[in-house]
Amino acid sequence: MVAKIFWGEVNRTSEPEMLDKVKEIAKVHATVKDHVPELLLHHTFTNPTSTIRETLGVPDPTTGSRVLYILVFRKLHPITKLQDKELFDVWVQCILCHVTLWKEGVHHRDISPGNMMWYEIDGKLMGVLNDYDLSSLANDPGPRGNECTGTVPFMALDLLFAEAQRGEVKHLYRHDLESFMWCFAWIALRYENGALLPAGSRPFDEWATSNAVTCGVKKNYFLCHLEVPAHSHIDPLLWSFIVDCFDLLDTNSFNRRKQLIRSIKRGEKPANTEETESDIDSFLQQFRDTEGWVALSKPSREPSQ
Q1: At what angle do helices 84-103 and 277-288 cross, to 10 degrees?
Q2: CATH class of segment(s) 77-297
Q3: Beta carbons of 176 and 111 less than 8 angstroms apart
Q4: Over its length of 305 residues, how does the chain's per-residue pLDDT go in tens digits?
């Protein structure tokens, strides 16, 4: 078992409530069943930080008020312990769980390597999409939509601009799917045999120490100058798949920019793009159709006798 202790916002749907919704979805969707964390018990402390602020005479004490949660889960393994085909298989399971939850109204909004876990049952590795404390419900009246959430090194480029950081860009499904791509590259290039490579021999360290806008600049440079790091251990098929994924991201970004320019020329006010379920399926399918995804999805051959 493992305990999670954190201060959650009072006006946000709590993680235990979110997991209750996830559990209901899991009853009817195989892509979610067995791919979400098992909450064993939880406790919410009744005194929020607003009580302390009010006692101290802090102005507007209820703004950003938080309450202490303790959640106990069944222990899982981190995805960074995996590599090559096993890494890809667990990563895909998390993507398929995520897209089903999104369509059913549970928006994760914080895709990172730390939130992708796994366990083994009957010799099969089961991917688990973990950590719902920053998630939102599509019909929840609390904070959501343009609220900028996520872990900076893995956030979509559109969310790392100043406007997005000010809450002026709607958080969409494609942003979370892009985060999955950054996560895959991060793990594949920085870990070997489940261990983090030594400092100086792994890329992207500066992404984790930069502010959002600076990180966006560095990630955009990587996207425009794709080159396997020197002395990299990465399997050629995985690197080819990463290149395909970022090529798709770049193409989609270019197409959106052209569309924006055309709107500006027509004198139209740019607006946050809404997504249909068809848009979501189409975006995901583009990645599933890449040669790398198809090759990595094939069952592993049994070793010769």
Answers
A1: 170
A2: mainly alpha
A3: yes
A4: 899 887 777 777 888 999 999 999 999 999 999 999 999 998 887 777 777 677 666 777 666 678 888 989 999 999 999 999 999 999 999 999 999 999 999 999 999 999 999 999 999 999 999 999 889 898 875 545 446 567 899 999 999 988 888 777 889 999 999 999 999 999 999 999 999 999 888 899 999 999 999 999 999 999 888 887 766 788 889 999 999 999 999 999 888 888 878 877 887 766 656 789 999 999 999 999 999 999 999 886 444 33
Q: Which of 149, 227, 144, 152 is nearest to 189 (CA)?
A: 227
| Distance from the Cα of residue 275 to its chain's centroid | 18
CA–CA gap between residue 90 and residue 127 (Å, rounded): 4
Q: Please, what is the angle between helix 173-190 and helix 236-265, to 10°? A: 150
The three-point CA angle 265-269-270 to 5° equals 90
| Residue 269 backbone dihedrals phi, psi, to 5 degrees | -80, 125
Cα 120 from Cα 76, distance rounded (Å): 9
Dihedral Cα 212, 217, 218, 219, nearest 10 deg:
80
Domain boundaries along the sequence of the chain? 77-297
The burial of 119, by beta-carbon neighbours within 10 Å (0-12 exposed, 13-18 middle, 19 or more buried), is given as middle
Cα pseudo-dihedral 271, 167, 287, 280, rounded to 10: -60
